[in-house]
Write a structure and sequence with these properties.
The complex is a heterodimer of chains A (892) and B (109). Chain A is α+β, with helices and mostly antiparallel strands. Chain A is 52% helix and 15% strand. Classes of the chains: A alpha+beta (892), B alpha+beta (109). The A-B interface holds A 18-19, 21-23, 25-26, 28-30, 51-55, 58, 61-62, 65-66, 68-69, 72 and B 26-28, 31, 45-48, 50-51, 53-55, 57-58, 69, 73-76.
Chain lengths: 892, 109
């Protein structure tokens, strides 16, 4: 510190001195000349000064130039030395090929993995969403006693007049819109949105325009805005797409505009937006909570303030409810940032990965530091000679650090290749709805990050070896013949112990994830997915206006599907398990008082044969029958979970004959009789508890439900259990549907096995990526262990030779080497296991069926590492046992 | 056409560089040589040569070394570099252009 502060002053005195002496010399010379011409000394001096001019300002100017000159010279010297060091480093690295290769690959793995995870994290979570002032975009949801629900049309309309919001928009996501360009009907995902939707996000269309408030009204709404992705895939990016007409759900729509690519946030996001077109009728649909409301906050308003500001409107609205069970104060509104809903869990997941990957990088650094220490010992003679020739310690450290930096940067160059490959892996194993993951690129930000970590890495792995190597012990080193002293070897075992500790921590994490993945695979989903194909159908309202028409069509489709050769049975339901869609309703038991605590349950509209097709066991009573039609008595089948929930004191089978009611209609519940009890199904995720559920005959679906569910049901067919047989049924099924109505496409034709896999996608991403990192860590740690033991044997050839000459058995030598090699590993094991007891807590959310401190995993991982370590030590240890005493002794 | 002030500035540089083409000298000797060669016609302040020297040294046109002067005193000796020679050639050429441009106006033949 003191030295640095003294530098500028040192310059100043030196230049100042120089200038003063030079100017003094000039004045003195002039004075002398004038005295020779006969002037007195005093006069001559005065005349000289007069001729010279303003000496103070000349002095200052000279000093300024002089200082600049010195600074430039220093910089030039520094750059010159740097160039020298880099050339020298490159030559050194080129000479030590195997060292360079091992260190380079190690660093490439560490830096590359870190860069890949960073680029994913950057794309998903760090970059602001591509909307202006994205922080002001919020989701708005009403609450009931703090429980979130979806907004209804009247609620949306009420939010619009809340001044805290600049724009408010409603949206209904529609998973299957039948689009027809030319003759082929196709299923795409779209959304009905209100006209302010695009203003909420502040995004302008790439070409054309979005729809106006006038077009967002019944009768005017045959217009559409399409995504960039759809524009590219279906219209080849042709600008002539504007004003083209495409048929959507049976009605022609005019394409008004194309949104920019940044509007495609996830790989599965919407491809088309059409007006939601609320009618005056919709404005009174208080009970229909099916909207998504997004809003742009006014500048300076926080989400919390906005929620509070919208609450009075919400409460005012609930006074209109004819059937209200809650107190007015139980109604509220919550606004939360749009980004949080989108990025949500993935951010923490990626942060865990970044943590894991930084462990890998540290292990890589540990390895390279070890290699450098070994090289440093081998180079002590070279360095001692350089020091003896006058290179200062700082100069040598700088040169060695330059070598590290050159190494790290070449490693980073290879790391970019690794990162590129790993990006593909991450994308391949991650679920589809991770926002913007496919936007991850190796771009300037990632490059800057990579450069940054390689410089950091160079410091981490290079500093200690450099300081150590530059330690001036000239005499001793030169006397020893440059073999390096044995006492210096204490740092290397510590590095190995640290590497082992980090690797263990990572491996415990991946071990826990692998165990949970294994346990999750073995979960009985409650049905048999093998050979089952599901496909959603959506009947256009224009051609299917009545409930009778709808149920007739589905009945015919079910019968056609059952006749497909190879199909054992076919049925209809409203939501396939694990398909990601959900439909819930509050449920009320007839023999229980009506209170506010009526529980939520999944509700499904199903045909007869559904339980048989899915192999869901019937516990008691009967299946839904074809006779349970609209005219017949209202019935329902419930699952065991619902029976236990509603009637905790009786056996599930005894629930038969009780009355239950679904959504509370305005004029009191209508009860239906429980005629059957079936087994539980993991509906919303294999790792989630089966939810209570009730099944209603689809012909008894309440009339008002049909438009809400877009007249959409799911066909389920069971073929042979063989792999791929479900997929083979897609074409026969779509032909069967065409026999009923040729204009109906299949949407989301997926096998149940697909949904099984998809429901494990996030878990699989975790498991695959963390195991990959754990594997890399293990390999690197093993390389480190091998290197240290190998080095130890080389250093002790002499000693081993003496021991053998004095009659030591190879077994004794083996023990001697092993003891030295195992000590740091055991120490690292202990530290690593204690460390993992803390770090695995971050995985708790992702674990299934195992505790974060699962002893089996800890012991398993510990023994795995120990066994592999012993194998790694075996090679150098065997060399030690075979040392020929004569050769060893001769070497000195 | 070059700015007249730059021209004068460049001319002093060129004169100093020219002086140094005859061999290394210290500042006092440069001033003396300039005075003698121009018969005292150039009545610049003697001191103003020094900032020019430091600036040219900074720019690498000249190099300096401490040596012993004729009278046995320590003095800073300047020496022209290859870069300085190139600069001198460029300055001379520009000066010629300047004179050629100005001469017909001021000294019509």
């Amino acid at each position: 510190m003191t030295r640095r502060r003294r530098w500028p002053r040192f310059f100043r005195t030196s230049v100042q001195d120089e200038v003063e002496r030079e100017l003094a010399f000039h004045l003195e010379m002039t004075t002398r000349e004038l005295m020779e011409q006969g002037m007195s000394r005093a006069n001559a001096r005065a005349e000289a000064e007069r001729r010279f001019g303003d000496s103070a300002s000349i002095n200052a100017e000279c000093r300024r130039y002089g200082e600049e000159r010195d600074r430039r010279a220093h910089r030039a010297e520094y750059l010159h030395e740097l160039r020298q060091d880099v050339t020298f480093a490159l030559r050194q690295l080129g000479r030590a090929r195997s060292f360079t290769a091992i260190a380079g690959i190690t660093l490439a793995l560490g830096i590359g993995a870190t860069a890949a995870v960073f680029s994913a994290l950057d794309a998903v979570a760090l970059r602001p969403l591509p909307y202006p002032d994205a922080d002001r975009i919020v989701n708005v949801q009403p609450t009931r006693k703090g429980e979130l629900t979806d907004p209804s049309p009247p609620e949306f309309l009420a939010f619009r007049s809340v001044p805290a919001f600049e724009h408010v928009a409603a949206a209904v996501l529609q998973a299957g819109i039948t689009m027809r360009i030319g003759d082929v009907p196709e299923m795409i995902t779209g959304a009905h949105v209100s006209s302010e939707y695009f203003a909420v996000f502040g995004v302008h269309p790439l070409i054309g325009r979005t729809f106006t408030a006038q077009e967002d009204a019944p009768g005017q709404s045959n217009v559409a805005v399409i995504s960039y992705r759809l524009w590219m895939s279906h219209f080849n990016g042709d600008r002539g797409v504007l004003n083209r007409r495409v048929e959507m759900d049976g009605t022609p729509h005019t394409i008004l505009g194309v949104m920019p690519p940044s509007f495609d946030l996830t790989r599965g996001s919407e491809d088309i937006w059409t007006p939601i077109a609320f009618s005056s009728d919709d404005a009174t649909k208080y009970g229909e909570h099916y909207l998504r409301v997004v809003a742009r906050l006014r500048p300076g308003v926080t989400p919390a303030q906005a929620g509070a500001a919208a609450t009075p409107a919400e409460r005012e609205l609930s006074t209109h409810l004819t059937y209200r069970t809650l107190a007015l104060t139980d109604y509220g509104v919550v606004a939360h940032r749009y980004r949080d809903g989108l990025v949500g869990d993935y951010q923490s997941l990626l942060l865990v990965l970044l943590g894991a990957v930084s462990f890998v990088l540290l292990i890589a650094c540990g390895n390279v530091a070890n290699l450098l220490l070994a090289r440093g010992s081998a180079r002590t003679k070279e360095l001692a000679i350089r020091a003896a020739l006058g290179a200062g310690r700082g100069r040598i450290v700088r040169q060695l650090l330059t070598e590290s930096l050159v190494l790290a940067i070449s490693g980073a160059a290879g790391g970019l290749l690794v990162a590129y490959g790993l990006q593909r892996v991450i994308l391949a194993v991650s679920p589809e709805d991770v926002p913007r993951l496919d936007h991850a690129r190796i771009d300037a930000r990632v490059l800057a990050f990579t450069l940054g970590i390689s410089v950091l890495a160079a410091l981490v792995f290079g500093l200690l070896p450099a300081l150590r190597a530059a330690r001036p012990q000239l005499q001793q080193t030169l006397r020893e013949g440059g073999r390096g002293s044995v006492t210096r070897d204490r740092l290397r075992p510590v590095l190995v112990a640290a590497e082992v500790a980090l690797a263990i921590t990572l491996l415990v994490g991946s071990g826990l994830l692998i165990r949970s993945a294994w346990l999750m695979q073995r979960i009985d989903p409650g049905f048999d997915p093998r050979g089952v194909l599901t496909a959603r159908l959506i009947l256009p309202g224009a051609r299917y206006p009545t409930a009778a028409g709808i149920t007739r069509a589905y009945g015919a489709i079910r019968d056609e599907a059952a006749r497909i050769p190879g199909v054992q049975s076919a049925a209809i339901t409203s939501v396939a398990p694990l398909s990601g869609s959900s439909m819930q309703s509050s449920v009320q038991a007839e023999d229980r008082p009506i209170d506010d605590k009526s529980p939520q349950a999944n509700v499904r509209f199903t045909s007869s044969g559904y339980f048989g097709t899915m192999h869901i066991p019937l516990i008691a009573g009967r299946d839904i029958a074809t006779t349970d039609n609209a005219a017949a008595p209202q019935v329902a089948v419930i699952n065991e979970a619902l029976a236990r929930l509603l009637w905790p004191n009786i056996e599930p089978r005894e629930a038969l004959g009780h009355g239950i009611a679904g959504v509370a209609p305005k004029n009191g519940p209508k009860y239906r009789t429980v005629v059957g009890v079936v087994g539980d199904v993991h509906e919303s995720g294999l790792n989630e508890k089966p939810a209570p559920a009730f099944y209603i005959p689809y012909e008894q679906t309440p009339e008002l439900m049909w438009p809400l569910i877009q007249r959409s049901l799911v066909v389920v067919v069971r073929g042979p259990a063989a792999e791929g047989s479900a997929e083979a049924l897609v074409n026969p099924l779509s032909r069967a549907v065409a026999r009923v109505d040729p204009s109906l496409p299949l949407t989301e034709a997926r096998s149940m096995s697909y949904f099984m896999r998809a429901s494990l996608a996030t878990a699989r991403m975790n498991t695959v990526l963390l195991s990959l990192l754990g594997g890399i860590a293990l390999v690197l740690a093993i390389v480190g262990i091998y290197g240290v033991v190998s080095f130890f044997v080389n250093q002790h050839v002499h000693e081993i030779g003496i021991r053998l000459a004095l009659g030591a058995t190879p077994a004794l030598i083996w023990r001697f080497v092993m003891r030295r090699g195992l000590a740091p590993i055991v120490a690292g094991l202990g530290v690593g296991i204690s460390l993992s007891l803390v770090t695995t807590n971050v995985l708790r959310q992702q674990l299934y069926g195992v505790s974060a401190h699962d002893p089996l995993t800890l012991v398993g991982v510990g023994s795995l590492l120990l066994v592999i370590a012993v194998v790694a030590m075996y090679v150098p240890a065997r060399r030690a046992m075979r040392v020929a005493p004569i050769i060893a002794l001769n070497e000195s | 056409m070059p700015n007249v002030k730059d021209r004068l500035h460049g001319t002093l540089d060129a004169l100093v560089l020219k002086t140094l083409t005859f061999g290394p000298r210290h500042g006092y000797a440069i001033v003396q040589w300039l005075r003698e060669q121009t018969n005292d016609a150039l009545s610049v302040e003697e001191g103003s040569v020094y900032p020019a020297l430091y600036r040219m040294e900074r720019d690498g046109w000249i190099e300096a070394d401490w040596g012993t002067s004729e009278l046995g005193r320590k003095a800073k000796f300047y020496q022209i570099t290859e870069k300085g020679r190139r600069q001198l050639r460029a300055e001379t050429k520009e000066f010629a252009t300047f004179v050629a441009a100005v001469k017909p106006l001021l000294l019509p033949s």
